[in-house]
Amino acid sequence: MNRYRFYRGILVLFLVLIGLWMIQKEQDRRQESERYMVSVIVSDSNNDRWIAMKQGMEQAAGDFHIDLNIISTGPFATLEEELEVVRREVSNNVDGVILQMVSSEQAYEALEGIFTKEAVIFLETDIEPEEYFVSVVPDNIGMGAALADCILKDYGERIEGKKIGILGGNQKQISMQQRLSGFTKQMEGSNAEITWVLHSESEEQIEKEEMLTLVDLLVALDNAETEQAVDYLLEVPQEAKRCALYGEGISEKVVYYLDRGLIQSLVVPNEFHMGYQSVKEMSRQLSYSPTIGESSQVGFLVVDKENLYKADNQKILFPIVQ
Amino acid sequence: MKGLFFQREHKALPIQLIISVSFTIVSICCMGILGFTLYRFLVQKMEDITIESSEQILDQTAINLETYLRNMRRISDTMYYSVIKDKDLATDTMAEEMNLLYEANKDNLISIACYTNEGELVAAVPVATEKEDIRIVEQEWFTDAVGRMENFHFSTPHVQNLFDNTSYRYYWVISLSRAVELTNNGSSRLGVLLVDMNYSSIEQLLKKANVNHSMEYVYLIDREGEIIYHPRQKLLNMHLLEENNQIAASYEDGSHKEYFQDEERLITVKTVSYTGWKIVSVTPKRVLSMGLTETRLFFVILMLLTMLMIIIINQLVSSSIAKPLQRLNESVKEWEAGNMNPEIYVGSFLEVEHLGKTLRSTVAQIRQLMEDILIEQEEKRKSELDALQSQINPHFLYNTLDSIVWMIEGERYDDAVFMVTQLASLFRVSLSRGKTIISISDEIRHAKNYMNIQKIRYKNTFTVDFQMEEDILKCCTVKLIIQPLLENAIYYGVQGMDGEGEIQIRGYRSKEDIYIEVSDNGIGMPKEVVCQLLSENNHAPKKGSGVGLINVHNRLKLRFGSCYGLEIESVPDEGTTVRIHLPYLIYTEEMQVLLESGKQKRQEEREQ
User: Of B472, B465, B510, which is closest to residue B486 (Cα–Cα)?
Assistant: First the structure.
């Protein structure tokens, strides 16, 4: 009799264990189906220049089961304008934010009060102090230096005495500072003269015609500046034949004008990789620990009219299948 | 240690355990083999289904792709055979027909263009400005067409680099090029017809095959293994991912297994006709495993539950088989324990019933035999007792009558009368209506009668003193046990003494025992003589009839058990005490009958 009671006990225990196991499996399944919500805040998010990055992000979001929300924004004029959008997204209970800061200065203090438990990854540019946050950025110093190398390669000995104008973009961003420093450092000893450096936030305005007449070479350090330089050259066609443009960018417009020969060389950051890597890193942080992360750097491409249609370059320069 | 092992090895195990364990092992083995076979069958079946499903998807995709490519070839054929061949470039224009063809297929087309063999544009739709400084003759589609003129040539996807598009649009195309014969002023010259297919149409076709979000996917490669479409093409382009496309190009159509990046994958390949492109379906093995995880767990649980049920059922079955045998065994054990009338189990199975009945009959036979032996022994014992008693009577009678004769001869008639009276009383006790068990009071009376006779015979040369506790007089004794002791006391103790002999008879109770001591102050015996007195082969010198202590001792033992009988203490020149040891049993008729039948003695022996 006792023996049968014992077996009955084992049977009941077994059934209870199966029940517990099934409950556990159900919980695991729910947990697996739970998706993290991540917002992406970049300046002027509808600009063509973000196309490749968005593709990278969307690919990673699919791979790592993340609900991605790329916030529609215009160009941020001030840090406060951007912070307002950040606050709004944090109040929507997102799990993480991927952020391209319009200014690297004073960003840390401002963001400290906004983020509590959310994971944060900085895109394209670091903020100060760099070690406190995780960032995915291009090799900005390398890109600046690559632009200088293109000029030095094209001009060789003829560079001596050439005047260079630099459209330095938003120098409140560390990335732009790095590009500028990378360029100027590389140009040291070349006997070329940097006639002017124009920052986008600078209040000093120079007439386009005047600007172009002053220089032989125009260097634009980001996509917006390159597009702006293209516009300058198109507006003053007589100067365009004399003034060579070297720029950084990825938008269809800058690629088109590279194809047309208006831009001599273009440095193109691998923004698909940057977007993919940022979401991948975000997924890692959300899944394991929001406090531990590793900043990473993505590469870039130097293209000119000759190698624009090379198979490898095509794949990066023309992300969209029309 | 070896011995212990040997013992363990040969230790008999309960039948239920053997049956249960054997059944369980066999059942579990069978279940295990069955489960494993079923599981393998299921895995194989799932693999077959996956392959079949992949092949279906590939077939469907290949059909769609072939249809699309056939349409493109038809466009090219129509353009060539219906337009270009009919036109003389010097006088005719093909723009209208070309435009009609383009309009009819513009969803799938980016452009149609015709070039001379020097790369000069003849006609193109949609109308667009040709790029400056463009080197048509160096473009791959052109060199392919000119290089092998008899064929259609499908390029890998590339960005079209022919026309200027001021809206900054660049198109990914797959170029279908062929060499054509152009007529100019009646003379023919070589040209190239280019149909740029919209890559997005092919992409859409392949995307349909990749709607499943699991890890299975389909990609498209050309005959050299260059990727035309891959669901994660961007990652491949960025070298963030790798694909085994170069090896896949060498696979024949059908299913293959491959190891790529430490992962086993199931590859299904289907070649698209004419182009030599291959559609490759990839199913990582772990996808099958993931699908099987639930099934595997279900199988394990089912197996465990079944095993548990089997164990329980085995217990019940083995119990029902072993129970009758165990009950039969219990009956045998009860019999072994001494119950001569055990309840032998008979029932359940035919074999057990037969065994039970046989055992029951055997037990009954043995019991009968034992009873017969007991009766036989009892008879034997009775006959021995009778023989012993019959040894006393003639002996005593001879002595007494000798005394009476002696008195009558000496004219001591009163003494003779007294003696005859005492003798009569003595015989009355002796006879006791045939009983061998009498009360101690009768035995004492008998002893007194005897001593009275002997005192007369021995002219009062000794004194006799009876000191009996009242309590013991009503107890049982074997008759004629004191008289031989008294006789010995006289013959071997006080007869021939210089002084007056003293014989003392003392009876008392000690717990559940009775002791009757016959003591004399006679010559006594050495220790070695005392030791021989109660042995069967004693050679002690005998006076009188030669029967005495050993006779009494045997009778007591026969009647009451081996712990009863005589004890002798003797010191030379001081005297002898012979102690009778009896159980304290109140004399009643039932007890007398019981003792007579010998049951009392057997009971006591059993208790010991």
Answer: B465
Residue of B nearest to A52 (CA): B234
Residue A60: closest C-alpha in chain B: B235
Whether the Cβ atoms of residue A285 and residue A98 lie closer than 8 Å to each other: no
Task: Report the topology of domain B392-607.
Answer: Heat Shock Protein 90 (3.30.565)
Find the closest chain A residue to B310 by CA distance: A7
The pLDDT tens digits of the residues spanning A65-78 come to 899 999 999 988 88
Best of A49, A320, A321 to substitute, by most chain B Cβ atoms within 10 angstroms, is A321
Summarize pLDDT for B118-140 with one digit per residue, the tens: 999 999 988 778 888 888 999 99
Query: Given a cut of 80, is residue A157 above it in pLDDT?
Result: yes
Q: For residue range B79-111, list pLDDT tens digits in order.
A: 999 889 888 888 888 888 889 999 998 888 999
CB A54 within 8 A of CB A25: no
Q: CA-to-CA distance for B205 and B202, rounded, in angstroms?
A: 5
Answer yes or no: do B238 and A4 touch at CB < 8 A.
no
Query: Closest approach of chain B CAs to the CA of A108, in angstroms?
Result: 32
Whole-number pLDDT of residue B526:
85
More confident residue, B113 or B44: B113
**Beta-carbon separation of B240 and A270 below 8 A:** no
In a mutational test of the A interface, the residue from B20, B130, B211, B238 whose CB has the highest number of chain A CBs within 10 Å is B238
Check: CB of residue A302 under 8 Å from CB of residue A148: no
Enumerate domains of chain A plus CATH numbers: 34-138+271-299 (3.40.50.2300), 140-268 (3.40.50.2300)
pLDDT for residue A222 is more than 70: yes
Size of interface A-B (CB pairs under 8 A): 64
Q: Which residue has the higher pLDDT, B391 or A44?
A: A44
Res A144 pLDDT > 90: yes
Interchain proximity A55–B234, CB inside 8 Å = yes
User: Which chain A residues have a beta carbon less than 8 Å from that of B315?
Assistant: 3-4, 7
* B257-316 residues touching A, CB cutoff 8 A: 301, 304-305, 308, 311-312, 315
CATH 3.90.180.10 for the B14-197+292-341 domain, yes or no: no
The number of C-alpha atoms within 13 Å of B414 and in the hemisphere containing its C-beta is 0
Question: DSSP readout, B518-586?
Answer: EEE-S----HHHHHHHTSTT------TTS-SHHHHHHHHHHHH-TT-EEEEEEETTTEEEEEEEEE--B
Locate the domains of chain B by residue range.
Answer: 14-197+292-341, 392-607
CA distance A256 to chain B (A): 6
Q: What's at B442, amino acid-wise?
A: D
Name every residue whose Cβ is closer than 8 Å to that of residue A43 and which is 6 or more positions away in sequence: A73, A74, A75, A76, A82, A100, A102
Q: Helix, strand, coil: what percent of chain B each, to 5?
A: 55, 20, 25
* B581 close contact with A: CB closer than 8 A: no
Complex ipTM value:
0.83
Chain A residue at shortest CA distance from B237? A315
Is there a contact between B238 and A270 if contact means CB atoms under 8 Å apart? yes
Residue B496: phi and psi, rounded to 5, are 80, 10
Query: H-type helices in chain A, by residue range?
Result: 2-33, 51-63, 79-91, 107-112, 140-155, 174-187, 208-214, 223-235, 237-240, 252-260, 271-287, 311-317
Same fold, B14-197+292-341 and B392-607: no
Inform me whether the pLDDT recorded for B542 exceeds 70: no
Question: Which residue is it, tokens 């004194």?
Answer: B463
Nearest to A322 among B171, B235, B312 (CB): B171
Residue B48 burial (10 A CB sphere; 0-12, 13-18, 19+): exposed
Give the chain A residue nearest B202 (alpha carbons). Answer: A321
Record: contact A314-B199, CB cut-off 8 A = no
